[in-house]
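Input chain follows. Return structure tokens only.
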Amino acid sequence: MKVQIIIGSTRPNRVTPRLAKWVASEAKNIPDTTVEILDLGDYPLPLFNEPGSPQFTPERKPDTPTNKWLLKLAEADAYILVTPEYNRSTSGVLKNALDYIDFQLEKKPVALVGHGSTGGAQAVSHLRGIIPGLLAVTMPRATYFHGASENLDENGVLSTEISSKPYGPHTAIKQTLEDLKWYSDALKAGRPEQKS
């Protein structure tokens, strides 16, 4: 499984990259898995302004930054969206990046990792409504992280206070990743050759 972990924030002093690094370190423990972190800061997409829906515009000619984003996404078998919660939803930059997608995620699994005052629960809830529009499959389980700034260092290492507990985000992420691998293998076996 080739999994891309997408950092869903571009603001200064963001915590989301810490979560992405933590998720990546956990994902590397899954057999037959390669991991890549994608930072939306490296893909400066303008606000979505195309004349038609990407899935229904066969003559579409994406600009260079958009094409770079789409070609990168097409390389993966599975995705993990790491999202903060802004105003009871996901971040605008993540939603905007998703709006550019046409068929890159079709019949592929997407896992969700949220953080914020409620563990990112409302951001995750909104993404569950968005992802089917990309023809992708959302994992039934998600990982919710409350207190990420206090419990993850800059390298994404979890505090011993959390990791020593029998349950918490460290156990949730393992289940989320196991599910992602299962769905990735099953969907890949049933998918025709890559469309994009």
